[in-house]
Amino acid sequence: MSPHDHDHDHDAAFALRTEALEALMTERGLVPPGAIEAIVRHYEQDVGPLNGARVVARAWADPAYRARLLADATGAIAELGFSGPQGEHMVAVENGPRVHNVVVCTLCSCYPWPVLGLPPSWYKDPAYRSRIVREPRRVLAEMGLALPEDVEIRVWDSSAEIRYLVLPERPAGTEGWDEARLVPLATRDAMIGVARAASPGDGDRA
Amino acid sequence: MPDRPLDTTGPVAPPRRNGELVFGAPWESRLFGLTMALHRAGVFRWDEFREHLIAAIGEWEREPGASAWRYYERWQVALERLLAAKKLCSPVDLDGRTRALAARPAGHDHR
Fold this sequence. Notes:
The complex is a heterodimer. Chain A has helices at about 5-25, 35-45, 50-60, 65-70, 75-80, 115, 120-125, 125-135, 135-140, 180, 190; strands at about 90-95, 100-105, 150-155, 165. Chain A is mainly α. Chain A has two domains: about 5-45; about 50-205, Nitrile hydratase alpha /Thiocyanate hydrolase gamma (Nitrile Hydratase, Chain A), CATH 3.90.330. Chain A is globular and about 55 Å long. By secondary structure, chain B is mainly alpha-helical.
């Protein structure tokens, strides 16, 4: 049996178990018909890093909004219509020339769903979750973000009720840009803190 | 939940444009949806689920060579244990139903 076959069998076993669990919960009246489909559709289509990008772009373009975001992120994010599970207690942390913030959940996979959607695989991976705390500068460099030694790195562990959103530095060369034009520059990875915001010109491909 | 269309004005593409599918397999999305539906129905508090998820992940991390890392398998283990603890689904019931589904004729369209 090839490793691939083994993976497939393993996956199939868990698929069956999930199907069995769903059938039992539905029969027992604990899950309304259609609820699962609606939730999956919502998270696949409506919730994602585009929401967070709108928050960041607004903060870049509007100093008063930026101040509200840093003072009360949950409220400021709700102003744009984003709220829900895993976004009840949001904190925005701002990057600057001497400070870089990066987010992790060391114990599991807590992540600000309403603004970033569901986390990418690497965020849930045991290696990222343990190493970003121990050696953040090195891990960030491996992920393509080399930070000068004089930049302080702050690692935020989401392992409580609080969920973090990184407010990246506004890219140079965007003076006078309006919000809509800034949105594509605020990438998911920049809002987790493992990348800088995209630059003008590569924004469309970010 | 309204079926809102994605905002496609300007250069902004759908949320998945950051390059990663949300789920790696259909059963993962069913499992996630099932968990959220049970939570929404008031079957458990999120921190109750989270405790089981932390424990299930911690078990893998203490013995990382025993099996490949698969996040949603840890999630499945956590949900099973939570529902068993709440006496909503016993391991015996779940094992039995899983065996029954596995015994379906080959070629049927299982997920």
